[in-house]
Amino acid sequence: MIQKPKGTYDVFKEQGKKIKYLEKLLSALMEKYNYEFVRTPNFEATELFHRGVGETSDIVSKETYDFLDRGNRNMTLRPEGTAGVVRSFIENKRYADASLPVKNWYYGPMYRYERPQSGRFREFYQFGVEVFGSNDPLVDAEVISIPVNFYKLLGLKGIKVNINSLGDTESRLSYKEALINHFRPHLDLLCDDCKKRFEKNPLRILDCKVDHELDIMSSAPKIIDYLNEESKKHFEEVQKYLKLMNIEYTVNPNIVRGLDYYTNTVFEVEADIEDFGSQNVLCGGGRYNGLVEALGGPSTPAVGFAMGIERLLNALEAENINIISNDLDIYVIPMSVNEKAYSYKLCQDLRMNGFNVDIDYMNRNIKANFKQADRLNPKYLIIIGEEEVNSSILTIKNNNTKEEYKIKEEDLIKFFDEVISYED
Ligand code: HAM
């Protein structure tokens, strides 16, 4: 039998319901912040990720799904969303929009050739935002607050917000020099990858999964001590706004992020739940003021983040938070095939009036239909027999209280409008 590719998964049953519900919540959340939905291709020119995410990041150097298309073009399945959204921002000249900042959100599959384990897949889903055109620390704080508020709304308790600043170009240059001076005498202790990183981008050494336990790692200089006045002020302002929003955070100098494009604020939210496992970073992001220009656009400040949907589902499960909502309003039960057509017509009218309706498609007998109703758990049942069809007076049952009502067909919509709230 052909099986699914390693590191991928199928969605069905409860998991499907949970994911659809999360998607609905995320979409509603973005309406609250007035962010605009954007979608970019799942594959892009390979060069975009090399120039965008960076040659020295693991994601690009080791984990991309690259292929040559039939026209001999080098293509890559996107390992993350930012580079594509930035490309789209430039290509569609969104920088000329009168109403800056451009506040985008996106959702979709990403691809990384990683070693699969719990919370780490080769195809996974990210929800993310990218905000272009403002360098205001308030925007950094808003971007950090979006996932944190969302996790809180869902009821997640075990979350920890880590923030750091990588400073502006000037601050990073002096930090880079300090790192080079620190690591140069110990080059022989570093892994082969880190030796290359030393030449190309010494900051990446701090992110190494192989060397991370070496003493020279913990004794390495911290970027926070190399921030110039402007970067320091920006970082302080971000913290001021986080406090204003009652968002608890820790300044953690070890957060350097695995992608090359960051400047100034960076952050990660981790699940602080016992036995959660090593893949505990629920989301991450930060400012990337140089990327739009690096990819050929005008100099434009930007900030964003992305969260993994699979890790969020794991965290909800670990805290026993059930996010499945009961969305089915009405289940229609014809007593026999004679009432099927009438019942289906009713079903169509109810759906067109905004109700979520299901009907028996399997010609079940009444007993089996009640069992099916137990499984589907609708708010109401409509049971339709010969008498109902002839009299146009319908039998409605509240599936919760088991109370029964007799309602004229012409009053049916009015009845459900009153008893079923659209809000839930
Ligand atoms: P990232 O930290 O590489 O950042 O990924 C963001 C989130 O995606 C992670 O925190 C994690 O929840 C999830 N994730 C990453 N890799 C996997 C995987 N293999 N399996 C399951 N989940 C995964 C970015 O992607 C940046 N583009 C974020 C950003 C947006 N920065 C600025 N704007």
Protein topology:
Layout: H1 13-32, E1 36-37, E2 43-45, H2 46-52, H3 58-62, E3 65-68, E4 74-77, H4 82-91, E5 102-111, E6 123-132, H5 137-154, E7 159-165, H6 169-183, H7 192-200, H8 215-218, H9 229-244, E8 250-251, E9 263-271, E10 281-287, H10 291-294, E11 302-308, H11 309-318, E12 330-334, H12 340-352, E13 357-359, H13 366-376, E14 380-384, H14 386-391, E15 393-398, E16 404-408, H15 412-419
Parallel strand pairs: 1-5, 7-8, 12-13, 12-14
Antiparallel strand pairs: 2-4, 3-4, 5-6, 6-11, 7-9, 9-10, 10-11, 14-15, 15-16
Helix pairs in contact: 5-9
The structure holds histidyl-adenosine monophosphate.
Notes on the protein architecture:
- This protein has helices at residues 13-32, 46-52, 58-62, 82-91, 137-154, 169-183, 192-200, 215-218, 229-244, 291-294, 309-318, 340-352, 366-376, 386-391, 412-419, and strands at 36-37, 43-45, 65-68, 74-77, 102-111, 123-132, 159-165, 250-251, 263-271, 281-287, 302-308, 330-334, 357-359, 380-384, 393-398, 404-408.
- It is 37% helix and 21% strand.
- With 424 residues, it is of the alpha+beta class.
- Helix 5 (137-154) packs parallel to helix 9 (229-244).
- The model has no long low-confidence stretch (mean pLDDT 94).
- The protein has three domains: 13-168 and 228-318, Bira Bifunctional Protein, Domain 2 (BirA Bifunctional Protein, domain 2); 171-226, no CATH class; 330-423, Rossmann fold (3-Layer(aba) Sandwich), CATH 3.40.50.800.
- Residues 80-82, 112, 114, 119-121, 124, 126, 128, 130, 258-259, 281-286, 304-308, 310-311 line the site of histidyl-adenosine monophosphate (HAM).
